[in-house]
Protein: Carbamoyl phosphate synthase small chain
Amino acid sequence: MLSSGYLILSDGSVFSGQVPYQQNNLLKGEVVFNTGMTGYVESLTDPSYAGQILVFTYPLIGNYGVLSEQTWESDKIHVAGVVMSELCQSWSHPKSIKSLADWLAEQNIPFMTGVDTRALTKHLRVQGTMRGMITQQRELRVDLAQSKKILGASFIPKVLIQKPLIYNKQYEKSIILVDCGLKLSILRSLMKLPYRIKRVPHDYNYSKEPYDGVVISNGPGDPMDYKATIRVLRVALRKNKPIFGICLGSQIMALAAGAQTYKLLFGHRGHNQPCKLEISNPKSRVSDKCFITSQNHGYAINEATLPKDWRVTFRNLNDNSIEGIEHKTKPFFSVQFHPEACPGPTDTIWLFKKFHKLL
Structure:
């Protein structure tokens, strides 16, 4: 049973809809939007959304139910809440195991439906992502000042592993996979390569251990909050071993190299983001290749601060922001988008092969 509910933003804007009548009266978080037409299961289980209220721009969500855990990006839903235009009650898919509504209820995830998500998204695109709360009291006003406690930093320990895990034990060459809030599809992609994988917590010091390469994963929050990750990576960058950063991992690599990051107005979240390859041949520095990519991030690299021995490899065609960097002479590279996709196109899956060749 649903009752009237309201999404109140920090700028005073109010969007009405319906919420389960028994739902907790107050939920706060950073309100962000995702433009994907499918992939809501993968998005909801993506640890990068920890602490955020996720708005789906596609008008009908839940029409194919919830697929098995083999499609999940972690072992649970990480979003703080979900906002939709319409929550489909009659789902249909041969591999689905339950409805989206039942899944959200099982995991105690608040949601709001019947919202004009088009108007809400247009508002966030102009004003930028901001704090918000879902409540059943329209006149309720709670302090929604920007706070890292809500925007992601406090969620870092909750989405990470606490001790190292080993995969592909049969191989001799090894990769250190730094888990900052890992999407499991990244692990699945790496496990297809002939390497032993040691998955470690974000603050784990691997710099004195034997390894052949390093991968820095995606994750939630401000990259500046991952101080231990940045500190260890600075040491790793002094060596000549391949390093591959993905999403948050790209921002962390830039920070470790000496660059700076900044918060985007409304971020890039969806699997229809066009990116141009800036460099196809380092000598000619000319490329006309464009890739459609899957993305989920709210921060970007400040190009003006990028050291001279690094260069931009990919650029977002919507806002010209940096989507990839690499060192000019050493085997270090990173991308802001998700080459493993899930959801989204697999146009850039070849980047895992690039990392393999460097190893």
